[in-house]
User: What shape does this take?
Amino acid sequence: MDKSKKRRLIYRIAALAVVLLIAAAMFVIGRGHTVYFDNKMPENVGTEVNVPYKIEVVVAGKSVAKLKSGERGMADTMGQNFNMQLLVTKEKGEDPTRLQVGLTLPYSMDGIIINLPALLSGLDESAYLSEFVYVPSAEEMKDEEVITDDTDNQMNFEG
Assistant: This one.
């Protein structure tokens, strides 16, 4: 192999390596998530958890949810590291307590539910972190037309 062919091959390999590094960085940095916040009793934890009267969730300096007991809010975020401030009012009329919380979001989940009372109680990640799965309502299911056989709606013409 002459000198110019070696140099060309080295440049091509270097360019491919740079493209792969940029792709890996964009995968980590650019991964988007929808994060849902619940202020309700967590399911299947086996222990009693105190549900605060109100929790305000602040992400990137903006209030994204003000949740009273039993409510859900949401925020969209980019990347795997998620930082939020929680203004927790345990009982009606009390002053809120400010908490700073940082989490690493799993790559495998697009819609993530964070149960805030379970998180604040110090329970395991499996108790406060779950994947959001959309379940259509009965009315939505009723409106959907289900075709089971392609020949049901065809007319037979002989000519």
Notes: Helices lie at 3-29, 116-120, 125-128, 138-143. The chain is about 25% helix and 35% strand.
